Each structure stands twice: as structure tokens, then as C-alpha cells.
Amino acid sequence: MTGGSRRFSAARASAGNSEGIRIEKAFFKAAPEFDTASTVTVDLIGPGKALISVTSAPEKTEGDPVISAWLSFVERDIQENPGRLMPLAEGELTALEQLVNGVVVGDSEEIPTT
């Protein structure tokens, strides 16, 4: 999808013994990966909030779907708007170095979620 986030209309729909959600056609034009997807996953991420993902291709890593969606958004924004990138100021870099000074982390360690 290009041009940042957009909102699309959707409505509940019944199909046989199943319930579904019908999304306007413009969504599939804006995000063609959903139009050709063989499998779509819906993760409930909070009250009234869901994350819809194409799962026809194997995902690279297991993880939090909200973090994955945020990282995808940041990646797309960087690609579409490279002029927004700015280097860290010297003071910010110093503060970050002080924050992580002495912290040792291995590649196989997991970040606690609680």
C-alpha cells in the first residue's frame, strides 16, 4: 500500500454458518497482496481493534503482531519518505549510550513481556 495509512469501510456479513466482514473494493486495489492471498489471519489486539495480515507466505519470525505491523509501517514510511530521516543530535546519541552502558544482550535472549 502506498501513501500512508487509509481507512476503508467494512460491514458484517453472514455466509452459511459463518460470519464474515466485507471490505470495500478500494481496499483490495490499495493492498493487492490481500486480493491474491490464499490465507489471511486476524489477530485481536485490543478491545475493538484487530490486525489483518496476509499469511500465504511464511512469516520470517514469530512475534508480536502489533510490533510487526509497526515495523512494517516504519519501513514503508522510510521507503516512501526518505527526506523525513534525520540523524540523531549529539546529545541524543550520548544519552542513548549512557542508557545502554554495561547492558549485555545475546542474540538468543528473549525480551520479557511481563
Explain the overall architecture.
With 114 residues, the chain is α+β, with helices and mostly antiparallel strands. 32% of the residues lie in helices and 22% in strands. The protein is built from 4 helices and 4 strands; from the N terminus they run ββααββαα. The strands form 2 sheets. A two-stranded antiparallel ribbon has the order 1-2. The longest helix is centred in the middle third of the chain and has 16 residues, at 65-80. It is elongated, with a radius of gyration of 19 Å. The two termini are 33 Å apart. The model has no long low-confidence stretch (mean pLDDT 83).
Number of strands: 4
Share of residues in helices: 25-40%
Q: Give helix and strand order, one letter per element, not per position.
A: EEHHEEHH
How many separate helices? 4
* Class of secondary structure makeup: alpha+beta
**Which regions are unreliable across 5 or more consecutive residues at pLDDT < 50?**
none
Rg result:
19 Å
The major sheet is characterized as: 2 strands, antiparallel
Read across the widest sheet, the strand sequence of neighbours is: 1-2
The coarse silhouette is: elongated
Instruction: Return the average pLDDT rounded to an integer.
Output: 83
For the termini, the CA-CA separation is 33 Å
Q: What percent of residues are in strands?
A: 15-25%
